[in-house]
Each structure stands twice: as structure tokens, then as C-alpha cells.
Protein: Antibiotic biosynthesis monooxygenase
Amino acid sequence: MTAEPTGSTRPDPAPGAVALTGRLLCADLDEAAAVREHLPEHVALTLAEPGCLRFAVEPTEDPLVWTVSELFEDQLAFDAHQARVRSSRWFEATSAIARDYTVETLTGEV
Structure:
């Protein structure tokens, strides 16, 4: 099953913004089903967070792999997001799923 791309983008983040990119790597179809079931609420809650500039989780051609792209205006907003997630239904349902993420603070240099 493919899902529509999720999330929002706002242009040109300022220096100090925090970007997370990577993949969710489901071990089996049950884990992928948990992602599909809980993703809409997770996306809606994340996009409503103060400081969320972009949040997208998209399926790939592999039904067990999802790409993840997040952008928060600063470290405080990113940390608040991480704290909220740890107490969410999303975390409860997907915490066993492998993640391959890179987190970086943007400097504004090209």
C-alpha cells in the first residue's frame, strides 16, 4: 500500500535550525502496518508543534522502508518534539522499528 506524501515545507530555514533525515526500516509487514496506522496522527500532532518547519514521512518502493525528513526552527523545538514523541501512541506502536537517522544543526553556510 502506498500513502500520499505527508508533511509541510516552509522555505529557507535560519541558521540554528535542526534537520533530521533518514529512514524507518520495518522488519516485517506488521511493523509497516503499525506505521501506516499511526502515521496520520503523528504527522498532524508534529505539524502542530511550535517550531516545526517541515515534517514528512513517505513510503518508498520497498513496503518496509519509509523516508523521514524533519526540520525544526531550533534545538529547543526539536527537543520538545522528541519529548512529546516519547509519550505518544506513535512511539508505543513503533519504538521497536529500526531507524537510520542523521541529525544536524544548520549553519546557514552553502
User: Anything to note?
Assistant: The radius of gyration is 14 Å. The longest strand covers residues 18-25. The chain has one domain: 18-104.
